[in-house]
Amino acid sequence: MNSIRSQSRLTNVIVLLFLLLGVTNVADCALPSTLKVCSRNETKINQCIIDAVEHIRTNLAKGDFGPDFNVPKLEPLFIEQVKMQNGKDLQAVVNKVNVSGCSAFKIERMQSKPMNLSFDLVVSIPKLNFTGKYTLKMKLLLLNLQGKGDINGTLTNVRLSARIRGYTETIDGKNYVRFHRLGIRLKVDDGRFQLDNLFNGDPVLGKVGNQVINENSRIFLDELLPGLEKNLSKLFTAIANNLLKNATIDEMFPEKVAD
User: Fold this and answer.
1) What is the pLDDT of residues 69-124, one digit of tens each?
2) How much is the pTM?
3) Which of 115, 117, 128, 98 has the alpha carbon at shortest distance from 16?
4) Residue 87 and residue 78: Cα distance in Å, rounded?
5) How far apart are CA 102 and CA 134, in angstroms?
6) Where are the alpha helices (DSSP H) in 22-138?
7) Which residues are 191's β-sheet partners?
């Protein structure tokens, strides 16, 4: 479950990250040459940024922006580990998570103020499939769930809202772009999960446990969501700042773009 959320989270943050990257100056060799530029004076700046992201959809899926850029690929998206804890009612760890479907994102809405480094967007993903290794102790209704083994599942109609705020750092007279912690909120319409080896592999209890989880998937998702949002926000803020560490605000949003 944790993995799934992180996928959504992850997708959204990468999308958000490249929304920003998508408007950088391609003339600067420190930035990927595949990125399209949007002028700060563009009358339809929001659509320009969305179009720039669409232009690099294949690059995002493959994680291919050239040898100078270490960007995780979206297909499949790999997450080393996600930890979740909510008192005694929830203790879970998901390792070695692979998520597919992230690159099918769609930017539903965006509002930007480029020179203020202010971006708000809503992204949707139709479906995410994931696999991983889990350890779980969770109290769900009257059932104490516990187990350790393989996990797989599907999340449908994932919706991510992202709030990005940045600032500039002056170094040698140049204003370099930096970002505060990204604010992320996730919504998922439905989730279906299969946890192998629940109750130490007892086939009867394992079947009951998975049935309870899926019949109460909303409760399960809501328990995991806050921690996933927090962890993903921290991770992708670091990625965004790393990828844009050599970009100035004038390079990201030039006054004029050559035809």
Assistant:
1) 777 788 887 877 777 777 788 888 888 888 889 889 999 999 999 999 999 999 99
2) 0.77
3) 117
4) 28
5) 21
6) 45-55, 57-62
7) 155
